[in-house]
Amino acid sequence: MKSRIPAKLALAAGLLLAATSSLAAPTPLPVESFAKIPAIQSVTMSSDGKRLVAIVSAPGSNYSDTALANWDLDNLAAGPSSITPSGDRMKFIAASALKAGKTLVLGRQEFTGQLAGCGEGNSTGATKTFLTKAYLTDSSQGKFNEAFADNTRKLGVSEQTQRCLELAGTASLVHSLPLEPDKVIISQVNQSTLSANYYLYNLQTGQTELLFRGGTRSSPGLFHPRNGELLTRTQIEPAGSTEYEQQILIKNKSSGQFEKHDLLTTKLSDRYSMEIAGIDDATGKLYVLTDKFSDQTQAWQYDPAKKEFDKEPLAAHPEFPISALILGTRPSNFNQVLGFYVDGPHREAVYVDPQMKALSDSLKQAYPGQYVAITGYNDDLSRVLFTTSSASQPASYYVLMDKKSVTPLGSERPWVDSNQIGEQRWVSYTARDGRKIPAILDLPAGWKEGDGALPALVHPHGGPWARDYTGWDASGWVPFFTSRGYAVIRPQYRGTTGFGRAHWIAGDKQWGLTMQDDNDDAAAWLASQGIAAKDRIAIFGYSYGGFAAAAATVRSPSPFQCAIAGAPVTDLARIGASWSENRLQRILQGQTVKGMDPMQNTDKVNIPVLLYVGDRDVRTPAFHARSFYNAVQAKVPAKFELIPDMPHSMPWYPRHYEATLPLMESFLRSDCGPGGL
């Protein structure tokens, strides 16, 4: 439909353009900069340091399709030894170099048909979706077999169930067991019970050995990284009429039986994090990541024989969580604690091992101002794979050879001019109730305080149990808009994970309420800092962020001139009982999805809104966006776009970017108070 712009909004847009015409306009990055398939991505090195594999842009495709590439590191200068383009339907999206000369590659393709409850989508009727499968190949890439699959027909399994499992895939890699020459740990769906069993799998012969038989309430925990022995398992048990507890059971060395440990058992309603992350070979103590003793997740050691934690944490940070331990995977440092990850503004590796620390420090010195990550190495560090990136530069991949020479493999997006991308800041502001809200602020190139207020976007992330990191925005949305003169702020609103348990739980049952206040208060902060004028701010979000954008349209008074809701949830009543396929996720998160329901408040809509969603999105189906549009389009200027063949999650095809980015840019220019520069 043709949007109707009220006179006051049209006037605001005109005033905005007049007020900003004297500012030097940045050069917009073209849509193609984000629409193109990355030149190289998903780069991994085999543990022996002999091979590299990656997903690359298919030769001759003009960055419109993917291919699988394989390098022989003994002859790296010669380039890839083999490049295999994706098929007409199945497209390569990720790859990993395994041992025994094998490569694991993920492929994805469109599928329309009856799923009958198999995977995300409708339980009745046809669903438009995507199917993802894993394949195994070798360095020649001449043949691709479905990875770890057991396609033998089982007695008592219906043809429909069999077909469903064939379509959706039945197996996945669980652990690479670095010291085993041929074996890995896999999970495989039992076609009779539809629960996952776990096996040792021989990459050379395809033979399996059962490690754990799954069930509806029990799942495996820690497999010993040396031999695959199952050391812990997790069990969900009722603890009252509406309560459940998560029990961690540890294998008793003497009896061979799994025993419940009370100190590791938590009520689901308490929402403590309790993850068994490894085992100390020397003492038998377990490494545990938990926030039971602090608002932030810390790394602790737990003695299963004495049934007690150490007196002090192994690793802790006063402001941010310890998200993982870095354990050695090569013979010389196997299973030793080399360091840990701190999830601050950016995920940062902190090495305590002298050799790895020296390597990391030297790479950071060589690439100042960049985030440097070591992603692979062989036993003597004669071959090291690492990446660099920043807020203005997409990831680039390099190999350090013999500790002295660096061979660049390439940048994901070498065509991006970093000079067109502005400054990124880690900031915080105080919400109306006093809570401190962290945020990422991105500014246009060349803008500085005193230059005048900018058009701005408040950009809440999806999830909501997720978070944003500083650095390059993989979606491309942030640099797309900053290169067009917008300031973009990404609030880490309450309910966001990674900023402490209290901040996370504060979002419970607050959808559209205090969670939404945090987004409104981000707009107020932008105005108070002179970054944006009050009448030049919009809100844009995707997934849960799309919910936040839809919710913003029915709240009053609104700090926003318009809203863009990508793949939104708009009807809370229709998702509460079906939040996830995962039973634990339904129990844990489903009960928190409450608050202000936009669909029940469409009579209060007061600002223009653009809603878009992919027609293959089964995470937030199109009925959410379409129903909301139908309810508000007679009351405010509104647009709805259904994007052909677009799924909910990345990676998206070039044509999806080509459809959505201009759509948003045009809406902001023509149908909303904030206008482009």
Molecular structure report:
The chain contains eleven helices and 36 strands. Helix content is 16%, strand content 33%.
Give the helices and strands, then pairings.
Layout: H1 7-20, H2 32-35, E1 40-45, E2 51-57, E3 66-72, E4 82-85, E5 91-97, E6 102-114, E7 126-138, E8 145-146, H3 159-168, E9 171-175, E10 183-189, E11 196-202, E12 208-213, E13 218-220, E14 232-238, E15 244-251, E16 258-260, E17 266-267, E18 274-279, E19 286-290, E20 298-303, E21 308-309, E22 322-327, E23 337-343, E24 347-351, H4 354-366, E25 371-377, E26 383-390, E27 393-401, E28 405-411, E29 424-430, E30 436-442, E31 454-458, H5 477-482, E32 487-491, H6 501-505, H7 514-528, E33 532-542, H8 544-552, E34 563-566, H9 583-589, E35 609-614, H10 623-632, E36 638-643, H11 654-670
Parallel strand pairs: 31-32, 31-33, 33-34, 34-35, 35-36
Antiparallel strand pairs: 1-2, 2-3, 3-4, 5-6, 6-7, 7-8, 9-10, 10-11, 11-12, 13-14, 14-15, 15-16, 15-17, 18-19, 19-20, 20-21, 22-23, 23-24, 25-26, 26-27, 27-28, 29-30, 30-32
